[in-house]
Amino acid sequence: MTSAQVDQRPDGTESASAEGGEGEGYQRGLGSRQIQMIAIGGAIGTGLFLGAGKGISKAGPSLILAYAVAGLVIFFIMRALGELLMYRPVSGSFSEYAREFIGPFAGFVTGWTYWLFWVVTGITEVTAAAAYMTYWFDIPQWASALIFTFVLYAANLISVKLFGELEFWFSMVKVTAIIGMILICAGILTVGFSDAGDTASVSHLWNQGGFFPHGVGGTLMTLQMVMFAFLAVELVGVTAGESKDPKKVLPKAINTVPWRIAVFYVGALIMILSVVPWTEFHPGVSPFVAAFQKMGLSVGAGIVNFVVLTAALSSCNSGMYSTGRMLRDLALNNQGPKLFTRLTRSGTPLVGTTFSAALMLVGVWINYQWPGKAFDYVVSFATISGMWAWIVILICHIRYRRASDRGLLPRSEFRAPGAPYASVLSLLFIGMVIVLMGIDKDARVSLYCAPLWGLILGVSYAVLKRRNPEAAAFVKR
Predict the structure, then answer these.
(1) Burial of 450 by CB count in 10 Å (0-12 exposed, 13-18 middle, 19+ buried)?
(2) In the chain, N or C terminus with fewer CB closer than 10 Å?
(3) Is the bond preceding residue 420 a cis peptide, omega within 30 degrees?
(4) pTM of the predicted model, to two decimals?
(5) 214, 58 contact by CB (below 8 A)
């Protein structure tokens, strides 16, 4: 091990400090207010503000049901993660748990895969943010991308508290926008003001071809888009090692998942589809923009552009944060270069964050120079790599619950409801989504990248294990 504190496990192996935080070299700079908004903001991104238009065109009003069912699965995943976090709150989060409950190779794969997920996401989001800026300013996209990357990079290196403040305000903008839209739609439905007042009706949810206008099959095919919209909700787990009071703050944040999904996804879509018939939505057009236009509010496009810009910057900010932590966790466990363990005086991972930010800039440049199919394949990998983290969380939770029920490990103070059956059902649901991705020709490309990435990781791990046997120090349970 490195300078991180170590604990003995029941099987005689060592792990990073169970306390996380200062034991890992980090500072507990994230308070309750920031953690709550990080948890809320993690569930709200461009998948809702932009991607929902495609989902509506494919499934009609039944997209509401798809978000509700997928949201329930996400809640089970987050409660499973919460139980693990209360057992051992560490910054490495599910990468650490994969290493402990599945094996060293699983931890290696999870850490590097989640790192790649956020690097790719950061590239796409900072590129998108630069494109959104052209709505107001006639400036080169590369200049905006460069400025955004350096500003977020600097903020993440200064202190974890500054990262938390940025994420707090980014999330506040997204939350305010959705609540504002819901209130406006509610006013139209009850009072009847604006251009949409005469036609707005809740009956739009079933009168335009029924609740399932394209059949149940059409609804099922949207599940991959729905799950993509929820990617990054697990980020709150990465903050465990830097939360001021993780055993109090994290359960409270995780327990807000049901109402977050109910309000921001289900509630928002019910309101929008009641004001504007689903037949008027089209792929590539934000349902929020379409709703504003139907209401006769000309400022709607500008408002949504600002909100989507905020969502993109929020995602890139989260990528800067999580990539540095994942690389450092890998290095602390001898599964990454030792230089990634270095921290600044304020307790932020200097080298890991710098390396990831540099790759984001290179990726942005490549995207501008060769925006072809090769880059699209890499981007599509984000979906399957993000879901890999959820799969690992659920498997680790099942194994942890089995061990704690037998008295081999201490029981968590935050027990997941319906466990372990809820975790098993969630795994089956994710498996179904992956099968649906294979059926859909537009989403199938996501699965093509996975074997190639797996081969790269397998060869890398074999080389690493030969050169440094400590990389496989933990024994599989």
Answers:
(1) middle
(2) N
(3) yes
(4) 0.87
(5) yes
